[in-house]
Amino acid sequence: MKTFALCLLACLMLAPMRIWSQSEQALPPEIRLELLPTAFADGVASGFIFVLTNVSGRDISIPPPEFNCSSPSQNGFIRFQWAFVPVNGDGIGSGISSCGPGGGIYPVPPLTVSSLTRNWTLLHPGESLRVPANWPPSSGLMLSGSYTFSASYSPPKISSEAEHLLSEAGIIIPRQKVETPEQHYGKP
What we know:
This protein is α+β, with helices and mostly antiparallel strands. It is built from three helices and eleven strands. Strands 4, 5, 6, 9, 10 and 11 form a six-stranded mixed sheet that branches. It has a three-stranded antiparallel sheet with strand order 1-2-8, with no helix packed on it. A two-stranded antiparallel sheet has the order 3-7.
């Protein structure tokens, strides 16, 4: 009976955390990401742009995203993924491009709203930001086989100090990761 009471108590204590995480996941997306082909070669997309669209009912500020980084970034990042399967099935190629702008160590001035948001884009509801993709890789494209492309956007990871400054100024940034559906192409 004592074990049952302890289990019940533990479940009741964990319930609010479970509800919180479910409600956080239930929030509607603020940003939609699209991967649009801009050029084709032999039926395969050979150029792309990323389109970030504000699908919320309020203004959203977006820092210029970095590309294909794997660790959190104060600007957020877009990851462009691709996979290739040759016609003969010998091996599978896939990858992401190298990390784009950013990285390195720079002097950090005092944090202000204007210094934080200097290069950011303000998107009103329904407005979009178009960003060119870094494709194709230097190894080339257009071998016979099947190609799969997709992209994801990870929102900015900012310090609590920056979060506080933005909140006081009424500036809203994206909070949720979004992904595109996979696009499939084949070259005979």
